[in-house]
Design goal:
- The protein is of the alpha+beta class.
- The chain is built from 13 helices and 42 strands.
- Helix 5 packs across helix 6.
- The longest helix has 26 residues.
- The chain is elongated, with a radius of gyration of 54 Å.
- It starts with a strand and ends with a strand.
- The model has no long low-confidence stretch (mean pLDDT 83).
Length: 707
C-alpha cells in the first residue's frame, strides 16, 4: 500500500492523529494532532463511551483537515494488544477413497481446524471472536507427520493450526466511532505490532529484547529473539494505577491526580487542590514517596510477565514506550525486578524511529511511538484490510492480510466449514451364507459456492460488496438394497410329487425369519438361502422325510451278520434314484413306502446243493465246498422265500457229515513233506490248537503251516 496515510491511535488518555507519506528519506509526517479525553470514556484500552470518543476523534480529524486543506476519508487504526488471542486447533477428515488429496480438501481441513480453535476460544467467555489470520503447525496422513498433503493418498488426514483472534466488540466499537466521524477503516493492525515495526525492526530481532508499551489502562508486552516475534502479552496495570494512588492519598479528582502525576518531573514545588477545596503545597519529592509502592507493584507485574514469556530469564534489554513509561522511578524499579543494569531499561521516544521527519512538533515523548507505528504498518503487509461482503444475504466485515478470499469470508460469517464437503453414506453390511457382502452408501454432494452468481471456490479473491451464496453440502444416503441384490437369481419351478403338482419357491431367511427377494435389507443381518438342486434338497424343502437307510442284525449258524436296507424308495421320472440325484423343473417323483431291498432267506443261504463254507486260511479268504444243507429259520424249516427280520436266527443244517480239518487237504495244494529247516506242522482254528478231526464252521480262521 502506498500514498498518503491517515492514522489514529485511540488511546485510554488521548487520541493521536498522524497524516504522512513515505519518501526516499523514510516516513514524513505532514500533520499531527493530539487531543485528550475530557472524561474517562475509555478504560484499559477499551472504548466505553462511543459518543464521547467520537467527539474527540472528530476534533482531531477537523483540525488536521483544516491545516491540510482537504478532507480525510480513510484511516488506519489499531486494536489494543490486550485483545489479541491465539489458540491452537486441530481437525481431521476421513478419506473414503484412494484418490489423490486435492488442495481444496486441505484448505477445507485447515479452515475446520481454525473453527475448532475458535470454538475453544468461545468456551472461555461470551465474547464473539473474529479470526484475523492463522498459520499451519503441521499435517498428518494416517497419523504420520507430513509437511504437505497434496497429491498423497490415505484414509485420514489431519491439520493443526495456530489461529489469531480479536473480540468482535473491540472491532465493532472502533468501527462505530469511525462511522460517527464519516471515516472508513482502511486497515487494522495490533498496537504491539505497530510499535515493534518502528522501535525494534526485523534487523534488531536477533537480540532478546522486550518492548513494553505502558499506556493509561494497560501495559502491552512484545518479546523478540532469534529474528522473530516470540510472544505477546498484556498486564492490566498502567499509568492510571499511579494516578489512583495519588487520588486516594490526597483525596483528588482523577483529572487533578493526573495533572499532579505529570508534574512530578522535573522536581520542584507543587500546588493542587483536593475535592474538599483544600490547597496542598508540597515538594515533588514528598508526593513521589506516596506513589513508590504503586510503582513497585506495576514494575513487579510487568517483570513477572516478561520472565514468564522469556522462560524465566531476563531479556538482554527492555525498551519502554507510551505515556505511562514516564512514571517517575518506573525504569529503575523494573530494572531491579529483572536484575538488569539500570541502563538496560530505557524509555525511548521518536528519536529511535529511523527516517522519521517532517512536522513533529506535536509528537513528543514515548507516547508518539504507537501512532507513527500504526501509520508505517498500514503501508506494509502486516496491516489487516477491511472488506465488506455479504454471505447468504448477511453483511460481513472481513479482515485479511491481503485482498481476502471466500474462505476468509466464510470464517468471518461463522459458516460451518465441515458442511462444505458431504460425507459418503454409511455402507450396509450383511452376511450371505457366511460370506460378507457390502453395499456402499451414496457419495456426498459438495457445497456450491457462488460469488455474484458465478461459481467460486474457497480460494476465490473478493472485492468490496461481493455477494456470496453458499448451498451447504449434502451427505450421501446410507447403503440400501433388497434380498435379491445379494443372492443369485433363484427361479421358481414345478414338480409332480406322488401325482400332485407342487410349486417350489426357494427358501430365504434373514435373521432366522423367512423373507422374499423383495424384502429390504437390514444392516448386519444374517441371510441364508437354500438352493434346491437335488432330491434331498427338495425333500427338505417339502418337509418330507427322506428314505431311511439302516442295518439289521441276524444270526447265521451262531454268527452275527449285518444286513443293510432302505426304508422307502424314490422314483424320479419312473426310475429308482438316490437322494443326491439332480432335480429339475417338470420332474415327477414318487415316494414308495417299503423296505428296499427286501432280504429273504435265499439272499443269505442257498436253498439246496452244496454249501460253500467261507473261511480264512493263513490270512486269506477261501470258500470250501461243504455238505448239502437243510435250512431252518428260527428253528422252523425254511425254503428260501421267507423274509428276514431283525434278530432272526438262520441255520444251515448239513444232511451229511460236517467238514473237519483233514478235509482241507482235499482242496489245498499242500505238500506233506516239511521244507528244509522246518519239521513241525502247526494247525489252529480260531487261534486254538486243532486236530485232524476238529470240525470247521462258517467264518472260521484257520492256520496251517510248517514251523
Amino acid at each position: 500500500m502506498t500514498g498518503e496515510i491517515f492514522a489514529l491511535d485511540i488511546g485510554t488518555r488521548s487520541v493521536v492523529g498522524v497524516v504522512g507519506i513515505t519518501n526516499g528519506e523514510g516516513f514524513k509526517v505532514l500533520e499531527a494532532e493530539v487531543v485528550e479525553h475530557s472524561t474517562r470514556a475509555m478504560l484499559d484500552g477499551q472504548i466505553h463511551d462511543i459518543e464521547a470518543v467520537s467527539r474527540v476523534v472528530q476534533l482531531v480529524k477537523d483540525r488536521l483537515e483544516q491545516r491540510l486543506g482537504r478532507p480525510l476519508t480513510q484511516v488506519a487504526v489499531a486494536a489494543a494488544g490486550r485483545a489479541l488471542r491465539t489458540f491452537r486447533g486441530t481437525a481431521s477428515l476421513e478419506m473414503f477413497s484412494l484418490e489423490e488429496i486435492k488442495g481444496q480438501q486441505v484448505l477445507e481441513l485447515e479452515l475446520a481446524a481454525v473453527q475448532q480453535a475458535q470454538a475453544a476460544l468461545s468456551d472461555e467467555g461470551d465474547l464473539y471472536y473474529q479470526c484475523v489470520g492463522y498459520s499451519v503447525v503441521g499435517y498428518k496422513l494416517d497419523n504420520v507427520p507430513l509437511t504437505s498433503l497434496v497429491h498423497h493418498r490415505g484414509s485420514q488426514i489431519e491439520a493443526e493450526v495456530i489461529a489469531t483472534f480479536l473480540p468482535r466488540s473491540v472491532v465493532d466499537s472502533l468501527y462505530s466511532v469511525l462511522k460517527n466521524c464519516n471515516l472508513v477503516m482502511r486497515t487494522l493492525t495490533l498496537e504491539p505490532i505497530a510499535a515493534l515495526n518502528v522501535v525494534i525492526p526485523p534487523n534488531m530481532r536477533s537480540l532478546n529484547l522486550a518492548l513494553v508499551d505502558i499506556g493509561a489502562g494497560t501495559s502491552d508486552i512484545a518479546l523478540v529473539s532469534g529474528g522473530t516475534i516470540q510472544n505477546y502479552a498484556m498486564v492490566p496495570l498502567a499509568g492510571d494505577e499511579i494516578t489512583e494512588c495519588l487520588c486516594q492519598e490526597f483525596v483528588l479528582d482523577f483529572n487533578v491526580g493526573e495533572q499532579v502525576k505529570r508534574s512530578l518531573y522535573p522536581p520542584g514545588p507543587l500546588a493542587f487542590q483536593d475535592v474538599l477545596g483544600i490547597t496542598h503545597q508540597l515538594e515533588s519529592s514528598q508526593v513521589l514517596g506516596q506513589i513508590i509502592p504503586g510503582v513497585k507493584s506495576l514494575a513487579r507485574a510487568i517483570a513477572d510477565k516478561i520472565l514468564t514469556l522469556n522462560n524465566l530469564k531476563p531479556p538482554s534489554a527492555v525498551v519502554l514506550i507510551g505515556g505511562g513509561s514516564l512514571t517517575p522511578a518506573l525504569p529503575e524499579q523494573l530494572a531491579s525486578c529483572l536484575e538488569l543494569p539500570g541502563q538496560r531499561v530505557a524509555v525511548r521516544g521518536k528519536e529511535v524511529i529511523s527516517g522519521l521527519h517532517g512536522e513533529l512538533s506535536k509528537l513528543t515523548g514515548p507516547e508518539c511511538i504507537t501512532p507513527i507505528g500504526i501509520a508505517v504498518t498500514s503501508l506494509n503487509e502486516q496491516a489487516l484490510n477491511l472488506l465488506h461482503v455479504e454471505v447468504n444475504k448477511r453483511p460481513v466485515r472481513l479482515f485479511s492480510l491481503n485482498a481476502g478470499s471466500v474462505a476468509d469470508a466464510l470464517l468471518a460469517a461463522g459458516f460451518n466449514l465441515r458442511k462444505l464437503h458431504g460425507k459418503p453414506g454409511l455402507a450396509l453390511t450383511v452376511t450371505v451364507n457366511g460370506e460378507l457382502k457390502i453395499i456402499k452408501g451414496e457419495l456426498g454432494v459438495s457445497a456450491t459456492i457462488r460469488r455474484n452468481q458465478q461459481i467460486a471456490d474457497l480460494t476465490t479473491s473478493l472485492q468490496p460488496d461481493d455477494r456470496l451464496e453458499v448451498t451447504p453440502a449434502r451427505d450421501g444416503a446410507q447403503g440400501k438394497g433388497t434380498i435379491k441384490d445379494v443372492i443369485p437369481d433363484l427361479q421358481e419351478f414345478k414338480v409332480r410329487l406322488n401325482g400332485s403338482d407342487i410349486k417350489v419357491v426357494p427358501r430365504i431367511s434373514m435373521n432366522q425369519s423367512l423373507v422374499s427377494p423383495q424384502t429390504a435389507l437390514v444392516d448386519r443381518a444374517e441371510i441364508v438361502w437354500e438352493p434346491i438342486t437335488t432330491v434331498m434338497g427338495l425333500l427338505l424343502y417339502l418337509e418330507v422325510d427322506p428314505p431311511f437307510e439302516g442295518e439289521m442284525e441276524i444270526t447265521v449258524n451262531g454268527h452275527k451278520r449285518s444286513l443293510r436296507y432302505t426304508l422307502g424308495a424314490i422314483l424320479l421320472n419312473g426310475k429308482p434314484v438316490g437322494t443326491d440325484s439332480p432335480v429339475n423343473d417338470g420332474d415327477s417323483l414318487e415316494l414308495l413306502d417299503e423296505v428296499y431291498p427286501r432280504w429273504r432267506v435265499r439272499d443269505v443261504a442257498p436253498q439246496s446243493g452244496p454249501v460253500f463254507v467261507d473261511i480264512t486260511l493263513n490270512g486269506q479268504p477261501r470258500s470250501l465246498p461243504g455238505p448239502r444243507l437243510q435250512l431252518r429259520l428260527n428253528g422252523q424249516p425254511a425254503y428260501g422265500d421267507e423274509p428276514l427280520q431283525a434278530g432272526d436266527q438262520l441255520e444251515y443244517i448239513s444232511s451229511q457229515q460236517q467238514l473237519i480239518f483233514s478235509d482241507l487237504f482235499k482242496y489245498l495244494d499242500f505238500k506233506p513233506a516239511p521244507p528244509p529247516g522246518k519239521s513241525r506242522l502247526s494247525m489252529q482254528i480260531n487261534s486254538q490248537p486243532a486236530e485232524f478231526t476238529s470240525p470247521i464252521g462258517f467264518g472260521d480262521s484257520i492256520i496251517l503251516d510248517w514251523e
